[in-house]
User: Fold this.
Amino acid sequence: MADKVLTVLQLLPALESGGVERGTLELGAGLVAAGHRSLVLSGGGQLVSRLTGQGSEHIQWPIGKKSLWTLRLVRRLRRLLVDEQVDILHARSRLPAWIAWLAWRGLPEAARPAFVTTVHGLYSVSRYSSIMTRGEAVIAVSEATQRYIFDNYPATDAQRVHCIEPGIDPKVYPNAYRPPESWMARWYQDFPFLLERQVLTLPGRITRLKGHLDFLHLLAKLVQADLPVYGLIVGAEDAAHAGYLREVRQTVSKLGLDGAVSFTGHRMDLRDILAVSNIVYSLSNKPESFGRTVREALSLGVPVVGYAHGGVGDTLATVYPQGCVPPGDSAMLEQVSRELLEQPVEVPPAAFTTVQDMLDNTVALYQALRRPDAAAANSG
Assistant:
């Protein structure tokens, strides 16, 4: 069966920031560049303009809103699938996946697009989460995610599960990369005190999962030991987690860290911030499926210290075992950090999955799934 031009509809709650969102944009841009049609349905957000600027079409519905009213979107989505002659319906989050599955199931079998889900997280095990294993193809973003699927949803047909990792573009994240002088000048104008400090960076949205309190307690111990360190918390503030943000800021004051840590908010220049960091941290208190920023930092040649569980643990064990810390072990976290600050261990070049690998593997899966008669059935 010859390859054809595909119409692909990706669904996710919003386009604000994060690994799911970035993967959606990368896939959309790759589809457009290959001559396919890329549609994305979400609740909107700051990345919409970037998405559409890359040639994808955006449809804004409140598909991530946790309300019974969201079920009204099922019939509307079913009509959209028919009107736009969608070949691939690709759900990247649980609530959108339920809406997608209900809409998809209500179409005649011959008129259905192929239904794909991507398991981006090691979700709480429940019937609600099980929707992510119901795709005709289920993409696992790491070996850790694949283990999670088989351990917790053993009825899942192994032949439907495909491990396709998010990609790192080696041209964007080259080993030993240094930011341009213009960026460096602006950066040290904004943060002049970093010129004399070793920079410890914790990237990620400000949610309890990301381990900000562990990071702050580590920072306090290092400051008390008179080490010239400064902490950067780089990530968007989420209104849904305002109480946690207050707790984090109160902890900064309690630990006497007001002059030793900055909150940068969401940054579009994260690559450059990672590159000028001495150590990048991943301290999620629950195992994460992948850990994109961990691979980005390592690809740049920047040491990473992280809790050795989930996808982050797998990556560190393979590429940079010097950064592995047992989850929650504050004494070991301090010891490893001090050792790397006092005597850095070079990060070896790593051959991570590239963005092009991810695109090629995903499009090949789409082509294998698409039904040649679906468009004809939809238009009839």
Q: What stands out?
A: Residues 181-342 form a domain with the Rossmann fold fold (CATH 3.40.50.2000). Residues 374-380 have pLDDT under 50 and may be disordered. The chain has two domains: 7-167+355-379, 181-342. The chain has 15 helices and 13 strands.
